[in-house]
Specification:
alpha/beta, Rossmann fold, 6-stranded mixed sheet
C-alpha cells in the first residue's frame, strides 16, 4: 500500500463573496521510500496540498489516506495522534524552541506524545550524529547557525520514526552551501533509511534531489517528472527548468 494517497481532493476558501479553489480534484500518491518534490508558482496550491496531506487542514471534498487510514473517518483527536506519530514536519523557519537545547528540541515530539524522553537519549544522540551535530547537543538555537538549526529540525522530524516527512521550503531560509547540506541529508535519509519525504520547493536545484517532481498550476497537477541522478546534477536541474518553461511556471 502507498504510504500516502490523496483521492480527488479539493480545497475551497470563501473570500468575501468569492469562492477561491486552492486545489481542484487532485490525485496524489507517494510510495514508501520515495522522495517527491512539489513545485509551482505562488498560489498554485503547494502549501495547501502539504497541509491537507499532513492532516493540518481538511479538504472540502475528497479523501486523504495516511498510513492506510482515511483521515475524514477519524475524530479530531485521532487525527492529532496519527499526525503526531506518523508524520514529521520540517518548516522553512525551523520552529525550534529558543529556550531548549538541540537535544531537547529533538526530543520534544516524544515529550508531547507522553513518552519519557530520558529513555530515548541514545536515539536522540544518534540523530544528532547523523545530522553532523553530535557535539552540539547542549547548544540552544541562538548558539547555532541557520543551517545547524535546520539540521536540528530535520532530526526532530525523524525522532518518532514517522511514516512520512513533509518539508515546506526547507532550504528557503538558507544560503547555498547550507541548503545543499540539508538536501543531501534528506536524500541520505531516503536512501539509507527508506524514509518517505514530500517536499514543497520553488527551487529547481532543490527539487533535483527528489525521485520525482510534481508540478502544480492553478490547483491542479499538470505534469510529473522522474529524476535520474537525484543529487543536484545540472542535467536534472535543466530538465526541471525546461518543464517549468513549458508550463509557464
Amino acid at each position: 500500500m502507498p504510504v500516502l494517497q490523496a483521492k480527488a481532493i479539493t480545497k475551497q476558501y470563501q473570500m468575501g463573496e468569492v469562492i477561491v479553489k486552492a486545489l481542484d480534484c487532485v490525485d496524489f500518491t507517494v510510495e514508501k521510500g520515495e522522495f517527491v518534490a512539489v513545485m509551482g508558482p505562488s498560489g498554485s496550491g503547494k502549501s495547501t496540498l502539504l497541509h491537507l496531506l499532513g492532516g493540518l487542514d481538511d479538504p472540502t471534498s475528497g479523501e486523504v489516506m495516511l498510513a492506510n487510514q482515511p483521515l475524514s473517518k477519524l475524530s479530531d483527536r485521532e487525527v492529532t495522534i496519527v499526525r503526531r506519530r506518523k508524520v514529521g514536519f520540517i518548516f522553512q523557519f525551523y520552529n525550534l524552541m529558543p529556550t531548549l537545547t538541540a537535544a531537547e528540541n529533538i526530543g520534544l515530539p516524544l515529550l508531547i506524545d507522553g513518552q519519557r524522553v530520558q529513555q530515548h537519549g541514545d536515539k536522540i544522540q544518534g540523530l544528532l550524529d547523523i545530522v553532523g551535530l553530535g557535539d552540539r547537543a547542549t547548544h540552544k538555537p541562538d548558539q547555532m547557525s541557520g543551517g545547524q538549526q535546520q539540521r536540528v529540525a530535520i532530526a526532530r522530524a525523524f525522532v518518532n520514526d514517522p511514516e512520512i516527512v513533509l518539508a515546506d521550503e526547507p532550504t528557503g531560509n538558507l544560503d547555498s552551501k547550507s541548503g545543499t547540506a540539508v538536501l543531501q541529508l534528506l536524500r541520505r535519509f531516503c536512501d539509507q533509511r527508506q524514509q518517505t519525504i514530500v517536499m514543497v520547493s520553488h527551487d529547481p536545484r532543490a527539487a533535483s534531489f527528489a525521485n520525482r517532481v510534481v508540478f502544480l498550476k492553478d490547483g491542479r497537477i499538470v505534469k510529473q517528472l522522474s529524476i535520474q541522478q537525484r543529487n543536484g546534477n545540472s542535467q536534472d536541474v535543466w530538465a526541471i527548468m525546461e518543464v517549468m518553461g513549458e508550463l509557464e511556471l
